[in-house]
Write the structure tokens for this entry.
Amino acid sequence: MGRHTTQHPPIPDKPQDVVDREREWALLTDFIGDPSPAMRLGIVSGRRRHGKSYLLQALSESLDGLYVTAIREEGRLPALQRFSDVIASHAGLHSGALSLPDWPAVLNSAINVAARRSKVPLLIIDELPYLLQHSPELPGFLQQLYDDHQRGEGTGARVILCGSAMSVMHELLSGSKPLRGRAVIDLRLGAFDYRASRRFWQIEDLPTALRVHAVLGGAPGYQPIAGNPTPNDGFDAWVSRTLLDPGRAVYSRTETEYLLREDPRITQHTLYYDILSAIAQGATTPTKIGAALGRPRNAIAHPLDVLESTSYIHREQDILRPRHPVITLVDPVIRFNQLITLPQASAVEQGFAEEAWKASTPTFNSQILGPHFEELARTWTRRYAHTVLPDGLPGPVGTTEVPDPSARTKHEVDVIALALGERPQSPRARIALLGEAKATVARRGVADLQRLERIRDLLSEQGYDTSGVALALFSLYGFHADVTELAKRRRDVLLVDLEALYGL
């Protein structure tokens, strides 16, 4: 006998106040619109400030769903009562009408009320990790609820669990955990990319948009708490009165502490702060990080694993050769804090933010803006280069080092893209693009192109297929006339300035 299906009403379009997120909205609405009468479970995770709650609240409101969020400071009994009150309110009852004794009663009541209220029974539990601190049995009850709703007619309930503690959310579906194998979606909500971030902040000046993204990234949650002044009033003044103002919620020192407290696995905050500072200052391997801290490599192995699982650091593999991955910081605001705010903390907290920022400008240009521009060049290659590359969409994108035996040196390659279908570290791989990205004031010229040609020839000698490679120069300050004229005559040369980077 075939399963019955539940006729769900059309899913509404994404509200206009939800910026970007077309792919995520489509994924969530497909999940909710599944006509099966069986319960379906979805997981949504993402770093603080990325807009998870905003997106899920909009989804719940558009479908008259039941949305409830946990609170960090709340114990088990207050949480049970508050959830009971939310369920009562959703059912049209007065506060206090329900006093559900345990989580099975809460979950069953929530599903039943959601089913009576809407043809699409939707329950969203936000910040689930806060509940797990006092009610670790909750995933087991959710498993039982899920299994009970797989047989019979069912209500077609859709349950979404959300949280900011990345390590906790990722472990929900791992190993022998109760919910393993039961989730239809595991959506990890990232920040806006640099183009969407500029539109969200409504920044007209491209250098300003780039610099704002270099210090705050694409997390949309920073825009409302930054307040006035806006970046359009001038980047330097804006930085001094936001990230370097101890009275602001977006003060980078306060924000970094807030972010690190978000994950329960991060306990020794001083050690983690020191590790983040070492990475921000250029220590890119466990050995170098340990040396910067005066600790053996094995003493920081576990903290590095924790920082990676919580998405505070990223290990970037060399695209061409197996070697130690390069460790980088994910969060621009943490990088800004470790490199700019902390070294100047005394002056900043005495009210000399403008002076501290002026003194920090060389550090900002070399250790923040420069690396960030290189990262955006790689992002452009992944997301937008297919519109200009002869073979369209490239494959894996990253960095590499190319040995040059005759010159007894190595060439660092800021951007390298393999052809679509090629795998990293494969011998004789086809290479689609080689790029150099510079945020320095000097314009780029023919000498920079000749360096890329030398790297291309070396790779060809080493057995890689460079017959279709594009040579890309990325420049924050434009190009000399010699290379501009050359690029007009050569299809294999791409010049990407700030306007091209932003698609203008």
